[in-house]
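Sat 14:20. Reprocessing the chain from the morning session after the first attempt stalled halfway. Input below, unchanged.
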Amino acid sequence: SGIDLVDVSSGGLTPEQKITVGPGYQVPFARRIRNETSLPVAAVGLITDSSQAEQVLVDGAADAVFVGRNLLREPMWPLKAAKELGVEDTLDWPTPYQSARYRGNIP
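Finished this time. Tokens:
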């Protein structure tokens, strides 16, 4: 029972909303909710760079970073981001995906 995580977004789904958009533009909303409540929050809003995503977490602005739209544009982004951040691939990949991993199709 209760809230497990708040996905903080200001919407932007209708033309009536006038939202100034830029990299990480919704992170301040996540930070405020996290600071003013005891709830874990996820930040969104044009988080498209691995170092930007990591900084949101390091700065304590959010407990998680959601990158849904970026994943639609670049499905391999999590693996690319991990490589950029120097995270070693120690995943136990499912057998059907091993061939893609070792053929160099994964960033």
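Residues 82 and 89 are 8 Å apart (CA to CA).
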